[in-house]
Amino acid sequence: MWFKKSNFITLAVLAVLVYFSMRLTEFDLSKFRDFRNMIEFLSQWFPMNFSELPDMVEDMLETLAMAFLGSVFGLLIALPLSFAAARNTAPSKTLYNLMRIGLSFVRSVPEIVFGLILLTTLGLGPFPAVIAIMLHNIGVMGKLISELIEAADPGPQEAMKAVGAKNWLASLFSILPQIWPNVLSNFFYRFEVAIRTSLILGFIGGGGIGQRLFNDFKTFQYASVSLDVLIIMVMVIAVDFIGSFVRNRVI
Q1: pLDDT tens digits, residue range 121-144?
Q2: DSSP letter (8 states) at residue 124
Q3: Crossing angle of the two packed helices 111-122 and 126-150, in degrees rounded to 10
């Protein structure tokens, strides 16, 4: 029989979960029946206000810089930590367990929580946002790279050890060349995510075009909001295409 009892149970459990999730989130499609308010609201977005375009472009570049620095510094710190968090390269089991727990803890804290803490202690601006993005990226990329290290071919590492190379030297020069294309792929993916994160951090005072969007929306400058949104869309799409191009060339 093509429809097994286990499949029926799975569908029943899924249906129950969907039902209770819809109840908890007040999911109601009937709320879309009146588009008049939405149309009237969106009509205030046009025509766009181009008078502040130079300042918006500057904020966009600041957002890109925040995401780039947070991703680069996160990778530079996560890369050596990942070797200690990989089962086949960790110097000891104790260090391996501690590193995995530490990376899990850092990864479990959202960037906005780091941002709220750092903005309170360091003040408003893009610098605390960069540190917040960096900390979360350390946890995420540390885990991803450690898994790549564990899945690497052990042959080259054993060959280097057989000719007298030290453990750390064998790990570095035998494993890193194998995983480097995937490391770069993960980096560009995290860079794209960091751009979106930097927009959210801008809502709490982290600077960049996210903060400008929040301020324009809060002051009912909808003609400027529409241009902010357009610039954000162009920025994200451009970075996505560039990241895909680099990944395809490297991998």
Answers
A1: 888 888 999 999 999 999 999 998
A2: S
A3: 140
pLDDT digits (tens, 9 = 90+) for 39-84: 777 777 787 878 888 888 888 899 999 999 999 999 999 988 888 8
Q: Which two tokens stand for residue 58?
A: 């500057």
| Residues in the chain with pLDDT values less than 70 | 1-6, 34-36, 155-173, 247, 250-251
Q: Which two tokens stand for residue 66?
A: 């925040």
Q: CA 11, CA 31: separation in Å to the nearest integer?
A: 27
Give the C-alpha separation, 160 to 171, whole Å: 9
Q: How far is it, in rounded angstroms, from Cα 34 to Cα 21?
A: 24
Q: CB under 8 Å, gap of 24 or more: what pairs does 95-102 form?
A: 99/142, 100/146
* Rounded distance between C-alpha atoms, residue 195 and residue 21, angstroms: 30
Q: Where are the alpha helices (DSSP H) in 125-166?
A: 126-150, 155-162
Q: Which of 48, 41, 70, 38 is nearest to 233 (CA)?
A: 48
Amino acid identity of 64?
A: L
The two tokens of residue 101 are 């727990």
Phi and psi of 87, rounded to 5°? Answer: -65, -35
Q: Which of 233, 137, 148, 232 is nearest to 188 (CA)?
A: 137
